[in-house]
Known about the structure:
The strands form three sheets. This protein has an eight-stranded mixed beta sheet with strand order 7-8-12-11-10-9-13-14. Helix 3 packs across helix 9, helix 4 packs across helix 5 (132-143) and helix 8 packs antiparallel against helix 11 (262-274). Strand 5 (158-160) and strand 6 (163-165) form a beta hairpin. The chain has helices spanning 16-19, 23-33, 65-78, 104-117, 132-143, 169-179, 185-193, 207-218, 233-252, 256-259, 262-274, 280-292, 298-305, 322-328, 330-338, 354-357, 419-426, 462-466, 526-535, 546-554, and strands at residues 48-53, 82-87, 122-127, 147-151, 158-160, 163-165, 383-386, 394-398, 408-416, 438-441, 474-476, 488-493, 510-514, 519-522. The chain is of the alpha/beta class. FE2/S2 (inorganic) cluster is lined by residues 61, 93-94, 129-130, 167, 201-202, 206, 208. FE2/S2 (inorganic) cluster binds next to loops.
Amino acid sequence: MPAGPDAAAAGRLRSSxxxxxxxxxxxIYRSWLRAEGxxxxxxxxxxxxxxxxxxSELTPCNVHLRGVAxxxxxxxxxxxxxxxxxxxxxxxxxxxxxxxxxxxxLMAMEVEELLRANPLDGVVLLSGCDKTTPAMxxxxxxxxxxxxxxxxxxxxxxxxxxxxxxxxxxVWKFEQELAAGRxxxxxCVTAESGMARSCGHCMTMGTASTMAxxxxxxxxxxxxxxxxxxADSRRLLxxxxxxxxxxxxxxxxxxxxxxMTRQAFENAIVIxxxxxxxxxxVIHLLAIAGRVGVPLRLDDFDELARPVPTLVNxxxxxxxxxxxxxxxxxxxxxxxxxxxxxxxxHVGVTGRRLAENIADAQCWNRDVIxxxxxxxxxxxxxxxxxxxxxxxxxxxxxxxxxxxxxMKHRGQALVFDSIEEYHLAAGxxxxxxxxxxxxxxxxxxxxxxxxxxxxxxxxLPRKLLERGVTDMVRISDARMSGTGxxxxxxxxxxxxxxxxPLALVRTDDWIELDVxxxxxxxxxxxxELARRRDRWAPPENPHRRGYARLYVExxxxxxxxxxxxxxVGASGADVPRHNH
Length: 580
Ligand code: FES
């Protein structure tokens, strides 16, 4: 074990400041909790383990987490800890408006304060849906209490007419089929019923699956735990093991800052490339790294991913789903295949080196997890980071989900100031666009929308879909769902509403995308851009009060993780002692 001395033996358990107090203060804390019917032994100096539960009926991906919490409790009791489950904010990706991303930082702030304010020695973080996993990791990083993440696991494979159907990915496909007249409304309704046929998060390699794999790779979740389907009994077994393990972590005081090191983030970037992970991982990893004080740059994602082949054959980049990935061996099998591309000495919540964790890993299906000699996509086909006069702060494109013939493309811009404006125009048979047009949507960045919604892979104009066009270059300051696909340039920074060059583009300007060269160029002279800038004025913040105002005033740009500026960094777990 690489951790420090036994915190319990050294009398350093944080909860002792509450429960070991003599006289009136200790009596208040103990008697108050005994209202729940606990026997006095729970206050004998054992680690108090919080179970932070993002369960909600408004977050179907997390709705089974109460059962998972029960399994965690079994493990905590078994190992001699004292488990206390508590609810956190929950972020349901598909339901929340204007976008769940607006609230990721709010949830991170809420969980951080709950962890710090309560008498906890360690915490098990229960997450699932896209934003709940990064929010909890950000919180854990800022408090730096011993922590293990247990994600809820993916849904079972979706099914429609005998074929696998991927959550999200097939929604976009069916939308295009409907718009092109190749599918009826009734067929779409029938398809819906087989799309989400069990509890769990989206079972494509969308953001939820990506972030679960990343939590495992960072070392914050148990090896192999990311991929067990939510409905598989081994999901609960994993939860029970995590309950056992967190008690040991609390005793040894192995903390997130010792686990989420630069090596851990580098491993996460490599794994994200190998699994064909979501572009959202870029933003979330930058934000988590900012919390834990690890210097991480947007360009690290390109540089570290270049030698990495895409191995995992999952939608949206490939054909399989998370259930298949699990049975093929999951993340440990991918790690074993990547060999020297990973830091094998990294130590996570198991207390063992990564190399030891994956010593027995095997691949059981070579079409799902390809070998490095026969990858799904060659090295360097992961998320690319672009630079140029249209995106001085950078932009990203998911190459594995893009069309090869558009990776080098020059076309004239058709510009929309909002996604709503685009949607109004997209059905217009007279729209001045052909397949060479570069569609530009702005006003969808962190401050602009606000919250940077997942609209970057907007559906193509109807008249072009009807003509059989399946992809076009699309550029925006928005994000894209991890389940989405297409030649879409995302996260353009700085965004338009803060005066990024995206604000200066005009319809009919020429834009050149050159992904192999990693450039995105607005072919307009510097003098002309300067003239346009002189005439540009920033829009007023329309949000006069509440969280939206706080968010718009303080959110950072995409290349910095879109965290709130005052939340970057850590404050630790210490709180002034309140004297009852
Ligand atoms: Fe929750 Fe996809 S909507 S994981």
